[in-house]
Amino acid sequence: xxxxxxxxxxxxxxxxxxxxxxxxxxxxxxxxxxxxxxxxxxxxxxxxxxxxxxxxxxxxxxxxxxxxxxxxxxxxxxxxxxxxxxxxxxxxxxxxxxxxxxxxxxxxxxxxxxxxxxxxxxxxxxxxxxxxxxxxxxxxxxxxxxxxxxxxxxxxxxxxxxxxxxxxxxxxxxxxxxxxxxxxxxxxxxxxxxxxxxxxxxxxxxxxxxxxxxxxxxxxxxxxxxxxxxxxxxxxxxxxxxxxxxxxxxxxxxxxxxxxxxxxxxxxxxxxxxxxxxxxxxxxxxxxxxxxxxxxxxxxxxxxxxxxxxxxxxxxxxxxxxxxxxxxxxxxxxxxxxxxxxxxxxxxxxxxxxxxxxxxxxxxxxxxxxxxxxxxxxxxxxxxxxxxxxxxxxxxxxxxxxxxxxxxxxxxxxxxxxxxxxxxxxxxxxxxxxxxxxxxxxxxxxxxxxxxxxxxxxxxxxxxxxxxxxxxxxxxxxxxxxxxxxxxxxxxxxxxxxxxxxxxxxxxxxxxxxxxxxxxxxxxxxxxxxxxxxxxxxxxxxxxxxxxxxxxxxxxxxxxxxxxxxxxxxxxxxxxxxxxxxxxxxxxxxxxxxxxxxxxxxxxxxxxxxxxxxxxxxxxxxx
Length: 623
Fold this sequence. Notes:
16% of the residues lie in helices and 22% in strands.
């Protein structure tokens, strides 16, 4: 880290915060640890920065309220030293020595526009002189070989067609001309007549449909069957419509009814309706139907036992549930369950509806005692241990310690007791407790002694005392003679302010408005400083205008002087003061505070004064 001292200018008498920013950036690169004013150079400050920054940076100087005071450019190196801030960063562009640039003596004046035009015309005439004929008189192509043609070329007549061959790579497409040579590939279709096939045909994979052709020297239609010998009597045989039996071989399918037995498996049977879920019906090894869940009504069964005299469903009554059983037990009359020696007779019962008595696990009655008859607890009813426990609860060590702490640390011997102190306070004849300490004496300081002393001193005041009182009254009367007595209000009197329409009251120019208010004891400064400059607002308006016709900010609070002459100086900033307002002297200005209270703000008028807006008749140089 390097300690970099930066010197810059700003309005004098300010508390400044200095920050460094890179060119074109809003990121704070460094904040000065301290900013101090030069002793003799008014308006010159020195900011100390500890950083590793190197290059050109913008220095921004503000007051505690965040108001801009000045901004400069400074070139830093990552080394200890003092650096001067300048108005512009142009020095950053001097990246070479001036002596290395072109000297005036070596400079050649460039030609004028007219000279350049003349030279261009002369050169153009020379070039155009080389075109001695019209371009349109020249041939487009004089003959010779063409290296390549990228676009399509239409040939009307080709007189040199010998020596060409067709190579079937992707197929020849449809051919309408005769093919006199051989065809080694496949032929999609032949629409014309084939003269003859002299060679052997290896194979024909698709069906060949014949038209009128010769078969064994005979003209036939279609493709005739080969030579076939018909069995004797085949055509005269009669075949039955129904086959009653079949001796051998598999039968592919049977569409009619089968009257006999079928040996072997049957693929499927149509026309037969089975009950639902028939396919899941199971029969065990004993021939019984498996998993019978429900049997229809049985009227008579000679081998079924265990149901003799069984209750019929029509005579069945459902038993009480848990809640019904409990209700029946608790709602029974007491007389029903009080038989001597029974469980009911031993249950403790209330004699009325106030069921507050309980029996504990130790067989003790537990109840809240709401009332007791006189002498209901005899003296011998309480055991000694019970009395001891009661006493211990009332006078515990903690309770006693609390009582002693509240009384104080009395010695507890002689007159150093509560009684001894009371006597000493009341009676001048009492002994003075040593625990009192100091110079107190009951003889002179007891209430009785003070009463006697007052009685002894009763009478008229001396002449000298009366004269001293009269002198004091006379001096007070002289001080307020002819002057009205003003009751101090809760709002501090800020006095009168005069503004010229359009003026800029700014700290950066040293034109801020300074208001001084009497602040003996510093109460006003302490309050405003605690609230903070950011929570103070300045405003002014006339009675006929809304609040805030003129607005400004509180830039600084400064304590001036001490004792009876102590004041607080309030620096106000106002931009374009009253530029569009009527000129009048009946404006009222105020400083209002805003104090955060949770999610709300409490607003309070702190200072008030009068304000006059006057016309500015001079015209600024830079309006």
